[in-house]
Structures are given as C-alpha cells and as structure tokens.
Write a structure and sequence with these properties.
Blueprint lengths: L5 E6 L14 H15 L4 E6 L7 H6 L4 H25 L4 E5 L8 E2 L2 H9 L3 E5 L9 H11 L4 E6 L4 E2 L11 E2 L1 E3 H7 L6 H9 L4 E5 L5 H6 L6 E4 L1
Helix pairs in contact: 1-3, 5-7
Length: 236
C-alpha cells in the first residue's frame, strides 16, 4: 500500500551524472526510471522536477561572466534536456509519461498549466515538469515547491545523494547527526541547507511537507512511498 496518493519528486541534475563528470549517465538514468516505474505500478500519481546542474547552472555561469538572466535561461534549457532523457527512459521502461515546459517550446513539450498537469496525473501518466518556473532568479528547488503546491501533492520528495538532513554536511563532517524529523523553523534557526530560502518558505507557508532521502540507492523510492522511515521529514 502506498502512503501517498500524489507526490512531487525533485531530482538533482548532478545525480544524473552518476560516475561521469558531465551530462547524463545512462546507468543512473535507467535506475531512476525503474524506481519511478515501481511506484507508478503501485498507483501513485507522480510529478517530477529535475535540476540541470549536470549540464549548466545559471548561478555558476554568472560567476564566470554570463549575464545572469541568460545564464538562468540556459539552466532552464538544461532541465528540459534532462526531462527529455528521463521521459525517454521511462517510455523504454514501459511507463507512460508526459513533458510539460514552463516556457513555450512546442513540439518539445506542451506548455504548463495546472489543469493539464492534473489531467495527466489523473490519467495515470508520469508528469515531468521542466524549465523551472520559467523565470530567472528562481531555482529548480523553488520550481518544485511551486509545482508541488499547484498540483496539490501530498508531499514533496527530495531525492539526493545523502540519506536525509544532518546537523552538518555528512560528507565533510563525520560527526554530523541525522534528523528523522525537523521543522521549517529549526531549519531556519540552524541555517541548514535543505533547499534555498525561497523554496523552503514557499513550502512552509503552504504547509507542504518535504521528505529528504537517498535516491541513488535502487529501491529507496519505493520504500519512502510505502511509508518506511529512511530519510528526514521536514514540516511545520
């Protein structure tokens, strides 16, 4: 039995690199598609937002001299490339999926609207939401928070390479302690980097819980959706 009827899954662009230094690792992409196929078969309605950091990150581009607005637009296009890659992998795995874009670019993807998004979900298709919010200065974390609220998801699942939220970066501090549950206020007070401030505030103000977990271990997504406590729950 699934613990949630409708979820928004946020995936990291960097995670798609797998063992590579750049771009999309086919093995990692296939593993993600299989994990998504598993929970789709459970009847869960799935919306997905993917970052673009494996190809281009607007903020990094600005630091190298790119115009920030155009850099962010390049980052949006990177998320579209990742979305198309995941869409193809899902269809290869026998899962019906659909790409919507926050900027008009038919025939690559249909232009996003809440009504269209919800209809796709209710039809049992996996919904891939690309190009962030369609606006510069907003991250894909903010885009995923916005879309989770818009499609009325039960929860936002943030798939990362670590297994939850810690008191410090566990990859740098071996003494870091993991939280099973934490409030948004504690995240602010401890200055923890779960998502950027805009995304976190959006979830807090709209009472959208976030579950942070390790997506890179095959089978973990199904565990989370089945209600197993393997990550960190963030809520009011």
């Amino acid at each position: 039995m699934a613990a949630f009827k409708r979820i928004l899954l946020k995936l990291s662009g960097e995670s798609l690199m797998g063992e590579k230094q750049y771009g999309v690792d086919e093995k990692r992409l296939g593993e993600y598609a299989q994990q998504i196929a598993e929970i789709s078969a459970m009847g869960v309605q799935i919306g997905i937002v993917i970052g673009g950091g494996n190809i281009f990150r607007g903020l990094s581009g600005a630091a190298k001299g790119f115009d920030r607005v155009q850099g962010d637009q390049m980052g949006m296009l990177a998320t579209v490339i990742n979305s198309l890659a995941l869409n193809s992998a899902l269809q290869t795995a026998g899962v019906k999926s659909h790409v919507l874009t926050a900027i008009r670019m038919e025939p690559i993807g249909e232009f996003y609207s809440k009504q269209k998004a919800v209809q796709i979900l209710e039809n049992g298709e996996v919904l891939i939401l690309s190009a962030g919010t369609g606006n510069p200065f907003f991250t894909t974390d903010t885009g995923s928070s916005l879309r989770a609220i818009e499609i009325e998801a039960d929860i936002m699942l943030k798939g990362t390479r670590v297994d939850g939220v810690y008191t410090a970066d566990p990859e740098k501090d071996p003494k870091a302690i993991k939280f099973d549950e934490i409030t948004y206020d504690e995240i602010y007070n401890r200055n923890l980097k779960v998502m950027d401030l805009t995304a976190t505030t959006l979830c807090k103000e709209n009472n959208m819980p976030i579950y942070v977990f390790d997506m890179d271990t095959p089978g973990n997504l199904k565990k989370v959706v089945s209600g197993e406590k393997i990550g960190t729950l963030v809520r009011n």
